[in-house]
Amino acid sequence: MGTPVIDVHSHAVPRGWPDLAAACGGSGWPWLRVDSERAAMIMVGEMEFRPVGAECWDPAIRLADMAADGVDVQVVSPTPVFFCYDRPAAQAVKVARIFNDRMVEITANGGGRLVPFCQVPLQDPEVACAELDRCLAAGHAGVEIGNHVGDLDLDDSGIVEFLTHCAEVGAPVFVHPWDMPGGPRLDRWMARWLTGMPAETHLSVLAMILGGVFDRVPETLRICFAHGGGSFPFWLGRADNAWHRRGDLVRGASARPPGSYVDRFFVDSVVFEPAALRLLVDAMGADQVLLGSDYPYPLGERPVGTVVHRSDFLTPDQRAGLLGGNALRFLSPRGQGEATVTDSYGLSGRRPDRAAGRITA
Q: Does the pLDDT at position 354 exceed 70?
C-alpha cells in the first residue's frame, strides 16, 4: 500500500455546548449563535468572533472534503478561542472536559480517519497533565496547546513540566499561535493573523531553544509548530548569527546555536507557495515538515496539499514524507512505529487513489 496522506492541522467546533457561565461560573464565555443548519457564529460575550459552517461539526462533510482532496487521515484539534488560559484553572478544566468529550463525539463517526487532539488548562500543569491522561484513555491521540499562557512562554517551568509529561506518556503536541496582541496598527486587514501569528510562533520556537527546553525535556518529545513555524525558518540565520556574535545576551540557557535544534521539532506545510516551502525544507530538513491545511478555516489551504504537489524541487521520497510519512513518525504512539499507526487508523491494505481522491482496497 502507499503511504497515507495525513493532514496534521485542522480544527473543529461542536454544534452546541452547555452554557459555560452556568457550568463554570464567570461571564464573557464563548457561545455559538446558530444561524441555520449549516451556518453559525462563534461569539465571545456579545462580540462576533468567527463565522463557521457545518464542516466544523459534521463529520460527513469533513470526510467528503477529505475525499475530494485525497486526504486519508486528518488530525482534528480544538479551535484556540476555547483554550481559556486566562481563566482560573478550575473553570478552564471544566471547559476543556466539555470540548474534549465533544471532540471524541465528532471524530467517532469518521471511520478511524479523524484523529482527535485534546486541549488542556495549560495554566496549571498538574491539572493539565491529569486532563491529558483522561483524554488519552478516552481516545484522543495527542494535544493541541497555545503558544503562550499570558506572559509565560513555552520555557516556563510549569509548561516544561507539562511537555515533559507529554514525552513520558507518548503524546504528540501541536502548538498553535493564539491571543495575539491588538491595537490600531494590528486591528485592520486581519493583521493580527497575517503578521502576529507568524511572530508569535517564531517567538515560542526561540523560547524553547534559547530557554533551554530542548536541552531539558526528553528527546522523545514530539512537538509540531503550526503555519510552517511562523517566521522562524526565514530568520534562522539571523538567530544563529546573534547566538554567536551576541552570546552575552542571546544564548540564554541553550547549549548550542538555534540551527542545531531543528531536528527536535516539526512544522506544518501551511505556507502556500513553493518558494516558501523550499525555504522551509532547506531550513528544517524535509523530514521535519508535515502536511497541514488549517481546514476548514478560510486562511487555510484547499485543496489540501496543493503547495506540496506544486513543489517540483521535492524528490518522490521527500514528497511522500511531507504528505504522510513524516506525520506517521509524529503520531506514532510511544514509538511503536509507522505500521502501528497505520493499523490504528484503519489504513492497512488500502491504497490511496489520488486521481479519484479516494482510498481503494
A: no
Strands 39-44, 30-34: pairing is: antiparallel
Say how far apart CA 113 and CA 109 lie, in whole Å.
9
The residue ranges of every structural domain in the chain are 6-21+55-346
* pTM exceeds cut of 0.85: yes
The length of the chain is 361
pLDDT digits (tens, 9 = 90+) for 280-289: 999 999 999 9
Q: Which residues of 8-43 are buried (b: 16+ CB within 10 A; e: fewer)?
A: bbbbbbbbebeebeeebeeeebbbbeeeeeeebebe
Q: What digits encode the pLDDT tens for the residues 301-315? A: 999 999 999 999 999
Fold of 6-21+55-346: TIM Barrel (3.20.20)
End-to-end Cα separation, the chain, in angstroms: 9
